[in-house]
Amino acid sequence: MRVIAGKAKRLKLRTVDGLETRPTTDRIKETLFNILNPRLADCDFLDLFSGSGAIGIEALSRGAGSAVFVENGKGAVDCIKYNLHNTGLDIGASILAMDVLSAIRALEVQGKVFDIIFMDPPYNKRLEKQVLEALMNSNIIYYNTLIIVEASIETGFEYLENSRFQIYKEKEYKTNKHVFIELK
């Protein structure tokens, strides 16, 4: 796995040992960032369920102003620290070593607002629903915040129909998809 473009282009990234995380493939990451590219310059990026940190690091490499990584696995947090240091992108980055819902509450207290929020929760556990419900009335988003959920192809988002969120775009791959969500 590597950084695809930007300041840290071609630098290799360490991945987390074991089967706890599923690194996003370079091809899917490139497709995602081709979509996000117009919004990245100086944006504040939140990477939830960060794993190795590859998505947030790619955002920083491509010009995001800051990135917050949220991950509660010790091995994954160590991996993110290593990858940030190795790519030289640790300035402008911070890591919250806690569960995602606690991190959202902590960020609310800090008054931090994000332009882009990416989450890649464990598949088929409905964690994305819990996180979206927490974000729905959170002060860390605003009318222009883009939320991207990486989920299994089978994951449904029907519950968004009666919420403050709407699906802006959906990009399907072989076994997973990216769902782009914004406030109505």
From TrEMBL:
Keywords of this entry: Methyltransferase, Transferase
The keyword DNA damage appears for this protein: no
Family matches, as Gene3D superfamilies: Vaccinia Virus protein VP39 (3.40.50.150)
Keyword Transferase: yes
Enzyme class per UniProt: transferase
Pfam hit, one: Cons_hypoth95
EC number: 2.1.1.171
SUPFAM superfamilies noted in UniProt: S-adenosyl-L-methionine-dependent methyltransferases
Gene Ontology molecular function: any one: nucleic acid binding
NCBIfam families named in the record: 16S rRNA (guanine(966)-N(2))-methyltransferase RsmD
The protein's name in its UniProt record: 16S rRNA (Guanine(966)-N(2))-methyltransferase RsmD
Gene: rsmD
